[in-house]
Write a structure and sequence with these properties.
Blueprint: E1 9-10, E2 13-15, E3 38-43, H1 46-51, E4 54-61, E5 67-75, E6 85-91, E7 96-102, E8 116-122, E9 128-136, H2 138-156, E10 157-166, E11 171-179, E12 186-191, E13 197-200, E14 206-208, E15 214-223, H3 228-233, E16 241-246, E17 252-255, H4 260-275
Parallel strand pairs: 3-9
Antiparallel strand pairs: 1-2, 2-7, 3-4, 4-7, 5-6, 5-8, 8-9, 10-11, 11-15, 12-14, 12-16, 13-15, 16-17
């Protein structure tokens, strides 16, 4: 597992003490020729997990001259390429800064390495160049494994929450598993609350035998807190991981697919209940 690091945000990135980039035989395979004065490592922080779809490119200025990173993007065969994100982050010699970087949809028939950080770098004297910096990618390998595990489950079974209705201080509806392919048993075992809202599905574990096409159980949502700090600061108030196992594969946490209407209902529930608290 990749260690999760808590750091203090600063400007367009996060400044941290210099660290030795994580190196493993698979994750650190060079994706490009080394760039003098630059090192890069993929890191995932708790805030990245909360936001989803991003990680940090930890850039180290190992040279003797300052430079400014003006754009950053991931270059990996395991993820669909996204446009570079604009940055204006200055690196004095020896400085280490984390640059938030989005990753695209996973390409699950390809590995995530070798990977590179695609950087636009402004040098002293006004010269700007585009460089591909080899990316130590242990965290990226983990992200790719997690994303592709979810995609594999979704090919076999569709998870849905339907029929949500107000029920006093709760929303009640149905949680349904519908087989999409295969004949392996499918089991939904545990449903986890979000930071803001509790959830209960008393019919868990919900299992589809090899010849069963669908199964349903009741599900209900209730506000878990009305703390003003939590209400204002939470990044993912309506994300509820459901653990799903297909056959003998490892269980995989899959977020409940709540559409905009369902999220609006949850927001209205929290607002109504907390207004009376």
């Amino acid at each position: 597992m990749v260690a999760l690091l808590v750091v203090v945000a600063a400007g367009c990135g996060t400044t941290v003490d210099p660290v030795e980039p994580a190196r493993t035989e698979d994750a650190a395979a060079p994706s490009a020729e080394p760039v003098p004065g630059l090192q890069a490592e993929a890191v995932r922080l708790r805030t990245d997990e909360a936001v989803g779809g991003r990680f940090q490119v930890r850039v180290t200025n190992t040279g003797d001259e300052a430079f400014t990173v003006t754009a950053v993007a991931l270059d990996s065969p395991g993820f669909t390429a996204l446009p570079a994100a604009t940055r204006t982050t200055e690196f004095a010699p020896g400085r280490v800064i984390d640059l938030p970087t989005a990753y695209g949809e996973p390409v699950c028939d390809a590995g995530p390495v070798p990977a590179a950080a695609q950087l636009s770098v402004a040098r002293p004297g006004g010269v700007t160049e585009s460089v591909r910096v080899p990316l130590a990618a242990e965290a990226l390998v983990l992200i790719h494994e997690e994303e592709c595990a979810v995609r594999a489950v979704e090919k076999v079974v569709h998870v849905a929450v339907t029929g949500l209705v107000d029920d006093g201080d709760a929303l009640s509806g149905s949680l349904t598993l519908t087989r999409q392919a295969g004949n392996e048993p499918v089991v939904a075992t545990t449903l986890y609350r979000s930071v803001l809202v509790d959830v209960a599905a008393e019919g868990l574990p919900l299992e589809l035998a090899g010849d069963e096409r669908s199964g349903t159980t009741a599900v209900s949502f209730t506000p878990a807190t009305c703390d003003p700090h939590v209400l204002s600061e939470t990044k993912k108030p309506y994300v509820f991981p459901l653990t799903v196992q297909v056959g003998d594969d490892d269980p995989v946490p899959v977020d409940l697919p709540l559409d905009e209407a369902a999220r609006d209902q949850l927001a209205a529930l929290v607002q109504r209940v907390c207004a009376d608290a």
